[in-house]
Amino acid sequence: MALIVHKYGGTSMGSTERIRNVAKRVAKWARAGYQMVVVPSAMSGETNRLLGLAKELAPARVMPAYQRELDMLAATGEQASSALLAIALQAEGVDAVSYAGWQVPIRTDSAFTKARIESIDDQRVRADLAAGKVVIITGFQGIDSEGNVTTLGRGGSDTSAVAVAAALKADECLIYTDVDGVYTTDPRVVPEARRLRSISFEEMLEMASLGSKVLQIRSVEFAGKYKVPIRVLSSFTPWDIPIEEEARSGTLITFEEDENMEQALVSGIAFNRDEAKISVLGVPDKPGIAYQILGAVADANIEVDMIIQNVSKDGKTDFSFTVHRNDYARTVDLLKEKVLPKLGAEAVIGDTKICKVSIVGIGMRSHVGVASKMFRTLSEEGINIQMISTSEIKTSVVIDEKYMELAVRALHRAFDLDQEPAAA
Amino acid sequence: MALIVHKYGGTSMGSTERIRNVAKRVAKWARAGYQMVVVPSAMSGETNRLLGLAKELAPARVMPAYQRELDMLAATGEQASSALLAIALQAEGVDAVSYAGWQVPIRTDSAFTKARIESIDDQRVRADLAAGKVVIITGFQGIDSEGNVTTLGRGGSDTSAVAVAAALKADECLIYTDVDGVYTTDPRVVPEARRLRSISFEEMLEMASLGSKVLQIRSVEFAGKYKVPIRVLSSFTPWDIPIEEEARSGTLITFEEDENMEQALVSGIAFNRDEAKISVLGVPDKPGIAYQILGAVADANIEVDMIIQNVSKDGKTDFSFTVHRNDYARTVDLLKEKVLPKLGAEAVIGDTKICKVSIVGIGMRSHVGVASKMFRTLSEEGINIQMISTSEIKTSVVIDEKYMELAVRALHRAFDLDQEPAAA
């Protein structure tokens, strides 16, 4: 019989009443004969409550010893919710057992508060599944080689669920969340936005990294690496809808380009206005300038997103990139003080009132003209493009932030995203 | 340098403000050069909150699988408070690390919700102490041979602290609590009750088992078995009182009868009115009657305290014992239905309006007349004694509960407990 992993977020686990509903849903699947593994988050608000207490006591200097304790503290939230779910399942008459990350064990590196999973031992879980038990595994946490508790960082329960599904070679990993799937774009901006029945993991990866908040990006990377089919679906449907219906709902994130996949050129439109652009103008065009500029930025622990260098003219070039808006002032100061004099560049300019809009679609790989259609659409709306960056399945532009909604709506229409595509 | 274990109860850990005070106190000891291990309880109210959630979800039938999950759940309370204390110590500039029971590990049997400690590995803790760290170990919990989390039952943190002190051969285990020591009797009943500077662990064992709630009885048993000196002291003294003063405060529970020990005949008076007495009258005096009566009671999982059988007369005897008041009706019914007919006894009678008053003192071992002084004192007050039971260092009587305060006050005065005894 198929092995299924369910993941429930903090909202779904937010009260005993909701935990009881989760238990009823899981019990339904277990009674239908599926081998069930469940990965719950902490009850909503609990992680914030715990970290709030820590903050009141925090040492002035953040040190690894402090971060180790933060993980000890935060990990209790999922341990408690997992035990409660096991109890709720037992109350439904279903044999269930909960394991903390260290009990499975889920082995991670020692990067406290943002650890990465290295391996998962499936022996104990398989034995329980074979004995007919539902196995509950705490999300968000693991154990390092020294026996310390680690956590995976915010949203890490998605990654836990996918990693567990990969280790167990699960048939599908169902991520229950407060949205009912992945949309062509944010329905708050485009009311015609349509839920996708399926999306390739590469597209999902781009959508996630571009600011679509449905899934934590690392969980998508994990799913791609281990070829775990993920389904994102709503935890607000009644628990007793027929399994066949539930199993087809939401959005399937698949690693196979099978025949049933939607064959649209563009699957979705992502956008965000968290970024700011910075340009270093009149840079002498010689080897090493990218490193001299971005090395200094990276050393200051500032993350860079888009990077653009144009061809040079008269031995000089302009170098542009985007950073998070919160890092904008710090980055400009850094460049002016440390980089500009050494580099002999002319000026550093920037703008925080920008946004990035991206079209994403695996169809771009094999179809020319997708990017040019995007540019034409924006031009017809009178929107000036400030920067362009492309990858194999994505084209991103930076525009004035005041045009964001206009651009997203025009592109959504231009690529017919409001209409169900014909199967190939 | 001396190795000291501190234990702090839930009230002492009840808020970030209080945790900060605990950290300051521990830091004071660490800075004075002591090797420090700290065992905290969960923040007050937390264990009840968690078990309350479990109760809302609980299965109808209590099964080991359910109790396993209760332990997973409840153990999170101490893990969180321990991490918070480590953080508070780091904020004080003291290097600190917290370990859950399974990390030490503290190995227990698999009796979920009331596990017993089997062994404690001291390697990891010793390495940290050698490195100058304060080590915080979660109270109340351990790990069984299957890798499941277990808890020691209510008040188990006392036992954890003493067990850790025993495993590390600590010089002293300081139990910080909301009373400032062990008293000759309950000061709410006898205002002249006096704090004892020291008490032998055997006396403490009797006091604890007789209803003095200062320490969990199992922690006292542990202390006696491994000869760990325990000091009970107040967590409400200012954290910055001089260490020499703090180290002499409270009550020392010692396993040595050294010269400095108080040499009173009687150290304290314990009492409780939780019991009820039951008598089976006119029992044929032949082998096996005690087993026939108490075997049936034990099979019904009812705990028996005092047991008294008098010499027989005309081939018949009366058999009396006490049980918890909550078990009274059930026990009487059981005896009438199942035991009386088989035994051929005449009647089962009982009384719930009784109380037990006990004098406890290691001095009784070598001094005759202590018990008779007790009986005389009660007689002078016109108090009728219903049952008597004695052990090597204790004499207990059952009397009408309305005379309880009168009896305790009279005995306290008769044995000069309001006065500091002369050192031997």
Automatic annotation (TrEMBL), chains A, B:
The species this protein was found in: Extensimonas vulgaris
GO molecular function term, any single one: ATP binding
PROSITE patterns: ACT, ASPARTOKINASE
Pathway listed: Amino-acid biosynthesis; L-threonine biosynthesis; L-threonine from L-aspartate: step 1/5; Amino-acid biosynthesis; L-methionine biosynthesis via de novo pathway; L-homoserine from L-aspartate: step 1/3; Amino-acid biosynthesis; L-lysine biosynthesis via DAP pathway; (S)-tetrahydrodipicolinate from L-aspartate: step 1/4
Keyword Aminoacyl-tRNA synthetase: no
UniProt keyword list: Amino-acid biosynthesis, ATP-binding, Kinase, Lysine biosynthesis, Nucleotide-binding, Transferase
UniProt record similarity statement: Belongs to the aspartokinase family.
Superkingdom of the source species: Bacteria
Name this protein carries in UniProt: Aspartokinase
Classification lineage: Bacteria, Pseudomonadati, Pseudomonadota, Betaproteobacteria, Burkholderiales
Binding-site list for ATP: 7-10, 177-178, 183, 188, 213-214
Keyword flag Transmembrane helix: no
